[in-house]
Amino acid sequence: MVTAAPEAIFLPRERLDALLDLLREGGRTVIGPTVQDGNLVLDEIGTAADLPAGWRDEQEPGRYRLTDGHGDRVFDVVNGQLSWKRYTYPARQEVGRMERQADGSVSFAATPPDPPRLAFLGVRACELAALGIHDRVLAGGTFVDEDYRARREAALVVAVQCTRAGRGCFCTSMGTGPEVRSGHDLVLTELDEGFLVEAGTPAGERLLARVPGRKATAWEAGAATAAVATVRAEIGDPVAADGLRDRLMDKLDSPRWAEIADRCLACANCTMVCPTCFCTTTTVSSDLDGRVNTTERTWDSCFTVGFAKVAGGNFRPKREDRYRQWLTHKFATWVDQFGTYGCVGCGRCVTWCPVGIDVRAELAAIAPPASPPERAPSRPAAATPGRFDVARLIASSPETSDTTSLRLAPGDPALLAGLPGQFVMVERPGFPSLPISVSRFGTDELVLTVRAVGPATTGLIAEAPGAEIGLRGPLGRPWPIDRALGRDLVIVTGGIGLAPLRPAIDAVLADRERFGDVLLAYGARTPSDRLFRDELERWSRSGIEVAQIVDRAEAGWSGRVGVVSQLLETRDFGKRPTIAFVCGPERMMQATVGVLRDHGVPAERCWVSMERHMQCGIGLCGHCQMGPYFVCRDGPVFSVAELGELFGREGI
Amino acid sequence: MGGPTTGRRPRVGVVKLASCDGCQLTLLDLEDELLAIGERFDLVEFPEATSRRSLGPFDVLLVEGSVSTPEQVEQITELREKTRLLATIGACATAGGIQAMRNWADEPEWRASVYPSPDVIESLPTSKPVADYVTVDAELRGCPIDPHQLLELLTALRVGRRPQLPDEAVCLECKRQGRVCVLVAGATACLGPLTQTGCGALCPGYARGCYACFGPREEANVDSLSRWIGDDRPAAAVDRLFAGFTAWSAPFRPSAARAAEGFAGTKPLETAAGAAHEEHGDA
Lengths: 652, 283
Prior knowledge:
The structure holds two protein chains of two kinds.
Chain A: E1 9-12, H1 16-24, E2 29-36, E3 39-44, E4 56-60, E5 63-67, H2 85-88, E6 92-100, E7 106-110, E8 118-123, H3 125-139, H4 146-154, E9 156-160, H5 171-174, E10 186-190, E11 194-199, H6 202-208, E12 214-215, H7 218-235, H8 244-249, H9 256-263, H10 269-273, E13 280-286, E14 292-299, E15 309-310, E16 313-314, H11 319-338, H12 348-351, H13 359-366, E17 388-398, E18 403-410, E19 423-427, E20 434-441, E21 446-451, H14 455-461, E22 468-475, E23 488-494, H15 502-510, E24 518-524, H16 533-541, E25 545-550, E26 560-561, E27 578-583, H17 586-598, E28 606-609, E29 625-626, E30 629-630, H18 631-634, E31 637-639, H19 640-643
Parallel strand pairs in A: 2-8, 8-9, 9-10, 23-24, 23-27, 24-25, 25-26, 27-28
Antiparallel strand pairs in A: 1-11, 1-12, 2-3, 4-5, 6-7, 6-14, 10-11, 13-14, 15-16, 17-18, 17-22, 18-21, 19-20, 19-22, 20-21, 28-31, 29-30
Helix pairs in contact in A: 9-11
Chain B: E1 11-16, H1 22-29, H2 34-40, E2 42-45, E3 58-64, H3 70-81, E4 83-89, H4 91-95, H5 107-114, E5 138-140, H6 147-159, H7 170-176, H8 182-186, H9 202-205, H10 222-229, H11 235-242, H12 253-263, H13 272-279
Parallel strand pairs in B: 1-2, 1-3, 3-4, 4-5
């Protein structure tokens, strides 16, 4: 709360231009609210006359109107469609270039941040909170969005306390406003004759010392406090935020989701106007020859049909899945991931929804208040590198009719230090990035085993020896080999799923005596669809029991026919503590986990590798979200207990 | 991938059915890339640009226009057989075009009201998209198509990857550009939330409502937007919004059909396009 601190300065309205001049020092451009063609936009403020004097906003769900003629005040428009995200996290930002030379060599270059020096004028308390949230999400973890950080550091923030409330506002419920508490360099509170100006940072204090006003009187300071208090009372407490996380997560099956989907257009407007939504997509555009790539980070949305699509399916096919994803992220799983709600109560999603869907009403309908709040712990991100390395293809060898292993020599030895179950992002000029798990970490090479499912994977396995390929990693959480030490281990997988598990088998064989009994249960469509067939034999001679089964036999197959979980049905894993690693399609893993549970492996000791649409690989783009997790960063390996009811559930 | 002259250049044809030629001209609008395209693709058939003609075969065929006459049915069937990869371009080829409004009309009557000698005109009672007759490998939407999407299609063909042609709503691009919503802030009827992106949010950029020339996206909740827009408009005015360039597309068809009933008895030139333009903010 801004209190009647003695250092507050009163700036008369007619001296506002002098403040703007101060903000512009050092070549800064002042950005603030201005009315253009009848719309409120954020744009350059040349003089105080550019500010929307006398304008006010009327907001309702799905409706926004501006009216003028309301006196001299310049900050009476509470907010407009555009948020400051536009300047700190632009809708379209080049992040890198990649070039393939005539000799086949490939170079990668990250685009260095080149932030404009801006002063944001008129940032509301809710928007300060939104910037704080982005600071945590984009610049507070192991991986940092360098462009965002540079833009934030280059910007001066001049906040304004709200002296009017909008019909969409619920900052009071989200604990973000209307009082400006932190995150600002300067803060203004508008009174009839001028502005109360206070500082929030040392930089702000230096500016404040030069603001051409006089010391504010106690009456002025009191009037400012009272004006903001009136706004608080006017807004009330429209969203019962206490315990909302748990109430919402208990209602994943609410019939209300389908009802909302009947109205929802899945048009993504709520996420575009939201000041905290940070999901992006990486678009790779190339020249006609696929030689020079430009990679751009572009605002994306969990509402688009393609957002959670992977080769072969969509994890959130229905509109209600996507609405539920958005709402539960904002008000539940965001708490798990980042320690606060992902909503600041600015009301933009309410006003700018083309069909007027009001989150306040939906939250009240789906998750009415009942139980007390509980904050789930946030997990630290795994420490892994985030830059592209150029690897050279040594050789490729076919494993099955559609699957090939690529042996790659990375330039950066850090790639060889990966752990079993980790993956790399693979990039080639002309193509978008692909997440591929590492099927072997050698002493000077790593192996990727790739199944051709589309043009990008088909092209990758067709690369000739000597080709240069971009790799970023190793990424993600590995198989918990350490938990299997001294215990029995059962590895269950099918088809291509053996690839991410081979490094785990390598690790077991390197230290065989430190593990108990080890069983590999491997299923495949046909005998010739099995990967690493010569190694399967070698493993069974080296102290691993290898059990195999196929859907369809071929000539010469004398082994079992059926599904992989059948290999486990005669076992008793309950005699000694057994750890299970399972990798395959989600339905296969679900069936397997059920059989394992029935035969003595509880969910806590059963580990699975989840598939989702991964694009950045480092938990910044949002595509692979699954409940409280980003699969790329928090997984892909999870215990079934960690996943809880998310595991095997459709539409998450 | 080699340089411009590596290997055989793909043989490309550009042909038209029932259409205005605007979409194929988009290829010539790619002025900065035209030379590079010419070096990498062998344009063997493109009557708008060259007097050189070819009957195929084609590695890539860009087809503009809807199938509107018996002759065009034969033409497209033959072309398909000679073509490796067939891409339809524009609202006519992908959705049937504005001329598909006649699908609800009494075709002989319309013909008689337009042509002085209707008996010499041989046409089908319907105007339909090419995909109703032959297999289509890729489509570029729009009236006209977007030059960037055309370049992306050609680039993807040459590099050997899937073209990046997003299916999302126009709204995302509108918001990325910082355009203030014409529907929420201006009460202008806008079909952007239902419409596939790709145009660069052109109309809202000029404070006009989107009239869905790119057609419905994969998921178009027509009923919900119609209910909302219908709160302060007559139902007939809402239906007319859909009776435009992509009226025959499945999600818009029921609304367009109701609009067409309302047009019954009026002369062709007074119908769909005119009505749609009025509602979207044209004088």
